[in-house]
Structure formats: C-alpha cells, structure tokens
Amino acid sequence: MARTKWGQLLRVDPLPFLASSKNRLKKIQRSDGIFGFKLLRDKSSDLPWWICLAVCRSLKRWFLPALLGLALAAATCKTPHASTAKVPSQIPDNTVEIPGGTFAMGSDSKDANENERPAHPVAVKSFRLDRTEVTVDAYGLCVRAGVCSEPDAYNDQRGSYRTFCNWKHPQSRFSHPINCVDFPQAAGFCAWAGKRLPTEEEWEYAARAGSEGRTYPWGSDKPDQSRLNACGSECPANLVAKGFPRWSPMYETDDGWPETAPVGSFPAGASKHGVLDLAGNVWEWTASEYAAYDGSHAEKKPVLRGGSWGGGDPRTERTTNRFRLDPSSRAQFLGFRCAK
Fold first, then answer.
1. What value, to the nearest 5°, has the Cα angle with vertex 53 and ends 82 and 73?
2. I want to staple 279 with a disulfide (CB 3.0 to 4.6 A). Which of 105, 226, 229, 317 is the partner?
3. Helix (H) or strand (E) holding 191
C-alpha cells in the first residue's frame, strides 16, 4: 500500500480520484475559501448586525434599558438553530433501536488497514439509527423548507463527477440516496429532522452487531450481487461511457445498478437489527473526526464508513474499514444517514 495521502485514498476506494478533476481539486485544496463562503451564507440567515444596533440606539439613553434592549435585539435577530425547530411531519421515523453494549472496535486481521489497528474495546449506549440512507426525496423537503442548501446537481458532462449526482437527475432518482453532499449539509439535514449524524463508534457497532464482530453487516460471506450495490459486471462499461477509467468489478455478476440504487434494494445485506445498505451504495459521513486508534495522530476530517457503488475491492465493504475527507468534499460516492 502506498503511504502517500492519495495512495491511501486509492487503497480505500478509487472513486475519490475520479471525483477530483483539476477544478475540483482546487476547490478541495482551497477549503478555507469554501468555508468562508459557507460562513457568510450561514450568517446571512440572521438580520444584519446594524439593524440590531439601530434598535439599541433608539432606546432611552439610560444604560440598563439599553443593555436590556441589546439582549432583546440579539435574541430576536438570531435565527433558531435547526435542532430547536419542530421536527417536520413529512419525515417519517424509519429509525431502528440499536441496544447498547461493549464491542471490539477495529481489526487486527490480515485484511485490516493500518488505520483499523489495533482492535480495542469500546462501550456504546443505546441509540436509534436510520434504517436506510437519506434519500433525494427527503433531502428535497429540507431544501424546500429553506433550511438545507442544494447539493451539487447532475450535469451531463463526460469526465465530471456530477454526471453521477442524483440531485436533479433526469431519471428522477427520488428514492436513491442523496449524494454529492458535504459534511455540513449532512449534519444540517439531520439537525433539521430532529436527529444527528452517528458517531464512528455507533456506526461500526451497528454494522458489526456489537460483540458478534461481523466482518460484513450480514455476516462473514463475501460480498456479491445479492447483498449490496457495489461495482458489478455492469459498472466498468458505465464508467468508461462517462469518460472515466475502467477497473475490475468486485463481482462478475450484474447487480442491476451501474450507479446508486434505490435505498433498501438489497434486503439480503441487512444487519442484525435490520439496517440496510451499511455496505455499498454511498459512503456515509459520520460525526467523528479522524483519530488513529493508537493515539499517534488526529486530523480535522470527518470519518466516512460503508463503501460505495463504485467499490471494486471487497475489503472496502468490511465493517471496520474507514477513511476520511475534508468536510467540504462533495462527490458522487458521498451520502449519509442519521441517528438519534
């Protein structure tokens, strides 16, 4: 395994390379600029500070009334955080209960990446996890409510990762997972829905069935076309047709979906508690920033779990596999689910 930054991404999944055209790489490398824009956008939801100040100046000149006026103005000018808003009635509660317990997180097996070592005990409290990944339809409700920003939309341009984006796709992929979303968009949706992103520990605990320590969400059998949406025999030709390199499929059978599949399309790949698509379809953002298990280093990058529809290596679908990206990253293989 190459020890360069990009080599590690390739070892996990080749799709990060395909998502990164020269223009896209510039955006990722200038993440401070992207966040600067996002911060400006977020602040624009509040009334300008000078309106609040004008309210205070219009008060009587006595100090105490002015101070009280300033506090009142600040309270009325600030937009409530999404987590304090009423949970939208259009969002059904499709979460499943994951009973708490202790499990061995990580892996010391021969297939384990360096960042999966060493296996170590972790206690997880009971929580609830979305049964499926968040769909285009569900995310669209948040956009129309004026809370979520639009993800990158479909663009029929050869060699562009946006040709795989489900937002505004001509095939109306409403039941497919939302993809091409960054970390703030994923976290923002979950907050709007009265939930949150799962931690990395919760995600792995649910996928491994706790102390059972499953290699894959369904057990120990190798991935095939009946259990997940990864790169099957249909995948290489589709990539080439859209201007991307060909690579070997994970399995030699057609799984029916050259790109993302409608969520829940592979019930045979369900976890012990009935959670679907924990392997394949889209990588899932978690709430946890990356840290080596041995404590040697950490990065301000969220961890992603689960593999994607373009994965050609079965090792990427293991329950212990992990990698990280800059939180501003958007690509065809990035999606999420929520927890609470």
1. 45
2. 317
3. helix 183-192
Q: What domains can be seen in the chain, in order of their start residue?
A: 5-45+87-335 (3.90.1580.10), 46-79 (no CATH)
pTM for the full predicted model: 0.77
Residues 189-195, mean pLDDT to the nearest whole number: 97
On the question of pLDDT at 32 being above 90, the answer is no
pLDDT of residue 42 exceeding 50: no
Residue 291 has pLDDT above 70, yes or no: yes
- C-alpha 173/C-alpha 333 separation (Å) is 15
H or E stretch including 283? strand 283-291
The stretch 90-104 carries a mean pLDDT of: 92
E strand or H helix at 64, and its extent?
helix 63-77
**What is the Cα–Cα distance from 126 to 130, expressed in whole angstroms?**
14
Beta bridge partners of 127: 98
User: Can you give the pLDDT at residue 102?
Assistant: 98
Burial readout 70-107 (b: 16 or more C-beta within 10 A, e: otherwise): beebeeeeeeeebeeeeeeeebeebbeebeeeebbbbb
In this structure, which amino acid lies at residue 326?
A: D
What is the chain's Cα-based Rg? 22
- The token pair at 201 is 């520990």
Q: What is the pLDDT of residues 229-275, one digit of tens each?
A: 999 999 999 999 999 999 999 999 999 999 999 999 999 999 999 99
Which pLDDT band holds residue 86 (cuts at 50, 70, 90)?
low
Q: Indicate the burial class of 248 (C-beta count within 10 angstroms; 0-12, 13-18, 19 or more).
A: exposed
How many other CB atoms sit within 10 Å of the CB of residue 331?
Answer: 25
Supply 202's token pair: 């919760």
Length of the chain: 340
- With a CB cutoff of 8 Å and minimum separation 6, the contacts of 128 are 95, 96, 97, 98, 339, 340
Pairwise CA distance, residues 165 & 152, whole Å: 7
- Res. 114: pLDDT tops 70: yes
